[in-house]
């Protein structure tokens, strides 16, 4: 007898990313209550399930929704505001002055547009850090995406909070207010060892552990950062974090570019996760993270886009390409970071990094978060290896469908549950404001 399900999705190819990494030709996925019930050959799934609704994607490659491990979605508002500059000059002389005048409404607008961009790029979940995060949460809620959201905690006042204690108070308040939301979670976000004192880091660690929240921070992003930290505190950034108790399971470190062999062993031994942001690191000339070495040591590594002011997009498909090619170019070893390992970093491993293990694969019990690529697109023909296509050929431009929690939130250029034109008008108005702040 057939089992009822809410939705049955069919596609020419289903890339499950399950434990066996099955690739299904003429595949299907049964969905109920926002979760995957089964995935397999279409003839078997159609015989086993009686759907209330069907979605035939035809000449498409269906895969798990991508998970962006490190983003600053409101910085979509600042895309292209300052380019071709070193990290510290870019941050301190161009980005911080504009951010000092931000409001919650402006942040919400930038975040909402960033969410649309991610959904149109096949991203179904992201780990975000910024200011005025109640606005970010409203944007996530309204657009239908998932996110882990953290309010930046700094040693100095921000436009959102007069001091670091107020930022942690806001974090606690927001964690409680959104505790039961199915798509919005909270992280504790001390910015870094160079912009948050050891006292602040320790308070953030305590808050994260007390509330059972992800601890998310920037770490070892560049040699300039390392030099600043060593000059002020006498030790390297990862040692500062270790002394504060920040290194352990439930911690996500963004970047980790300037690290030593001993520090890689430290990361592996403590169980922290790392968000690799290759395009941002290349653009800011921060260097190339030793991802292959980290993976070999057993570190869990996911992919992130960083902010659109330093990338300049939320396209995780291009981030996969960059991660694979950068590792090969720096090492001069074409076997490093093969396509399957990189796809894992945008799906299964990324879900582990952000503490949301229900995501990242199309298999029973996982969330029905999926995206689809157009296999009739000139850049995706012919198709020999679907995994290779995802990493080396695909871009956001070939995404034709994105689904979150069993609901289609993007299809063929349309956001069916949103007034994208109204958001566009808000974004243009906000951009006019930002333009007036540039010195």
Features:
439 residues, alpha/beta, 8-stranded mixed β-sheet, 8-stranded parallel β-sheet, 39% helix, 24% strand, globular
Question: What is this structure's SSE topology?
Answer:
Blueprint lengths: L2 E13 L7 E10 L2 E7 H7 E8 L3 E5 L1 E6 L15 H13 L4 H17 L2 E8 L2 H11 L2 E8 L10 H14 L6 E7 L7 H14 L2 E6 L3 H11 L3 H7 L7 E5 L5 H10 L2 E4 L1 H6 L7 H7 L2 E4 L12 H16 L7 H8 L1 H6 L16 E5 L11 H8 L5 E6 L2 E5 L8 H18 L2
Parallel strand pairs: 1-4, 1-5, 6-7, 7-8, 8-9, 9-10, 10-11, 11-12, 12-13
Antiparallel strand pairs: 1-2, 2-3, 5-14, 14-15, 15-16
Helix pairs in contact: 3-4, 3-16, 5-6, 12-13, 12-15, 13-15
Which regions are unreliable across 5 or more consecutive residues at pLDDT < 50?
A: none
Strand content: 15-25%
The rounded Rg comes to 21 Å
Helix count, DSSP H or I runs of 4 or more residues: 16
The percent of residues in helical segments reads 25-40%
Global morphology: globular
Taking the sheet with the most strands, its summary is: 8 strands, mixed
What is the distance, rounded to the nearest whole angstrom, between the alpha carbons of the first and last residues? 69 Å
**What structural class do helix, strand and pairing data support?**
alpha/beta
Mean pLDDT: 96
Number of strands: 16
């Amino acid at each position: 007898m057939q089992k009822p399900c809410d939705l049955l999705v069919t596609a020419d190819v289903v890339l499950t990313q399950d434990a066996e990494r099955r690739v299904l030709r003429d595949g299907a996925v049964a969905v109920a209550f926002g979760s995957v019930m089964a995935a397999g050959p279409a003839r078997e799934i159609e015989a086993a399930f009686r759907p209330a609704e069907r979605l035939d994607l035809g000449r498409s490659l269906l895969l798990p929704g991508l998970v962006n491990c490190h983003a600053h979605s409101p910085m979509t508002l600042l895309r292209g505001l300052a380019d071709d500059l070193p990290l510290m000059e870019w941050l301190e002389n161009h980005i911080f002055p504009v951010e000092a005048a931000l409001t919650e409404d402006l942040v919400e607008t930038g975040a909402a547009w960033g969410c649309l961009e991610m959904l149109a790029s096949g991203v179904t979940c992201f780990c975000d850090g910024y200011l005025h995060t109640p606005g970010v949460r409203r944007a996530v809620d309204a657009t239908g995406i998932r996110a882990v959201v953290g309010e930046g905690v700094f040693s100095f006042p921000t436009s959102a909070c007069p001091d670091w204690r107020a930022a942690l108070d806001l974090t606690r308040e927001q964690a409680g207010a959104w505790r039961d939301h199915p798509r919005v979670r909270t992280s504790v976000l001390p910015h870094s060892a160079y912009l948050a004192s050891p006292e602040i880091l320790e308070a953030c660690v305590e808050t994260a552990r007390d509330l059972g929240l992800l601890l998310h921070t920037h770490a070892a992003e560049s040699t300039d950062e390392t030099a600043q930290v060593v000059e002020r505190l006498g030790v390297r950034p990862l040692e500062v974090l270790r002394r504060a108790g920040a290194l352990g399971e439930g911690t996500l470190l963004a970047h980790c570019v300037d690290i030593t062999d001993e520090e890689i062993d430290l990361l592996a031994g403590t169980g922290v996760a790392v968000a690799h942001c290759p395009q941002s690191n290349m653009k800011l000339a921060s260097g190339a993270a030793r991802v292959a070495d980290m993976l070999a040591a057993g570190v869990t590594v996911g992919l992130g886009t960083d902010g659109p002011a330093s990338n300049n997009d939320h396209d995780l498909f291009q981030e996969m390409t960059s991660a694979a090619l950068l590792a090969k170019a720096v090492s001069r070893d074409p076997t490093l970071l093969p396509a399957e390992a990189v796809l894992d970093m945008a799906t299964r491993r990324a879900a582990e990094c952000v503490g949301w293990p229900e995501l990242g694969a199309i298999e029973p019990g996982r969330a029905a978060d999926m995206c689809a690529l157009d296999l009739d697109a000139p850049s995706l023909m012919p198709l020999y290896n679907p995994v290779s296509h995802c990493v080396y050929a695909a871009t956001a431009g070939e995404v034709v469908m994105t689904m979150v929690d069993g609901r289609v939130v993007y299809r063929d250029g349309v956001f069916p549950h949103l007034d994208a034109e109204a958001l566009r008008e808000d974004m243009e108005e906000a951009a006019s404001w930002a333009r007036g702040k540039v010195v």
